[in-house]
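User: Predict Glycerol-3-phosphate dehydrogenase [NAD(P)+]'s structure from this.
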Amino acid sequence: MPLDRVCVIGGGAWGTALAQAAILAGRTVHLVVRDVGQAEEINRSHSNSRALPGQELHAGLRATTHPEEADIVILAVPAQATRTVLAGMDPALLAGKPVILSAKGLETGTLARQSEILADMAPEAVPFVLSGPSFASDLAAGRPTAVTLAGDDATQTSALAAALAGPSFRPYAADDRVGVEVAGALKNVYALACGAVEGAGLGASARAALIARGYAEMARLVTAMGGSAHTLTGLAGLGDLTLTCTSVQSRNYQFGMALGAGRQTDAILAGGAKLAEGVATAPVAAALARSLGIDAPLIDAVDAVVAGRADIATIVAGLMSRPLKRED
Ligand SMILES: NC(=O)C1=CN([C@@H]2O[C@H](COP(=O)(O)OP(=O)(O)OC[C@H]3O[C@@H](n4cnc5c(N)ncnc54)[C@H](O)[C@@H]3O)[C@@H](O)[C@H]2O)C=CC1
Ligand SMILES: O=C(CO)COP(=O)(O)O
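Assistant:
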């Protein structure tokens, strides 16, 4: 199977960074953006000032506004836009092709994972999921970045990882698509919580406790959905939780800090907040946990704060007064 030509869809920070990584891996890459002016800027000045200000892009990276035939398709639009983007694509560009889903979120309404959306919209595409600790600005700048790339066929997944690997980008092949996808979506919810802990001045001990109990909660949900708890020991689980739950560079963490400072979701969004996928994913994850009969007090707490149903002080008091239990 040829794996040279790569089509990256999504001209935001992550799509641009993945396009840069793919070209540094030796691939021929076109980046699909929505805005003609943005495509012109990338092609003319080798920069995408809106998405990655100050980052010089590889001169060989070509931007277009329409996807073209490629051997590998990478989707890097927000999780809630994936279905619309797939609906607008020529099915022939997806049929039989490896399609790498890189958004971290669960779909509002359907509760679907990204690869379930792909299965609905392009059943003949071959799904892969990419997730892990990776700020777009790090990857685009060539700072060392490692992620998990999960797919159903081990040989194909390793070939794809090799096609995208470069001097500073290291995808590890894996087979647990469900675990990788759910971990990627849920870490954003815990990042909101950890940011809120910081915003509310609750201390680093509370934040570390939240990460550990979030990890345990994540494992319950992942296994109930058919994924493996072992996956969470890797880059998509522990790796991304560590990054996003401790770094003010994370947009989810930043959003959480604003919530922790007492601001309401609508006001934060109206103030032009950057994309924080956990905001849409929190209620979906809460609904999923309920439907599976999984106890998920932290996801419920984030959902309640994001929806404005409870303030941080009430949430913390509630969590701390839960009946004592064994650490299982
Ligand atoms: N920025 C980062 O460091 C990382 C982001 N991700 C994930 O990648 C996904 C995208 O995030 P970013 O690129 O950072 O966001 P972004 O906000 O920088 O860019 C989103 C891009 O998607 C485009 N878009 C939005 N709706 C669209 C639609 N309906 N049709 C076509 N294009 C549409 C926007 O025009 C924009 O270019 C998210 O799920 C995020 O969690 C994953 C790893 C790292
Ligand atoms: O997923 C990410 C890093 O792995 C990016 O996190 P944020 O979307 O919170 O900035």
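The chain has two domains: 5-175, 178-320.
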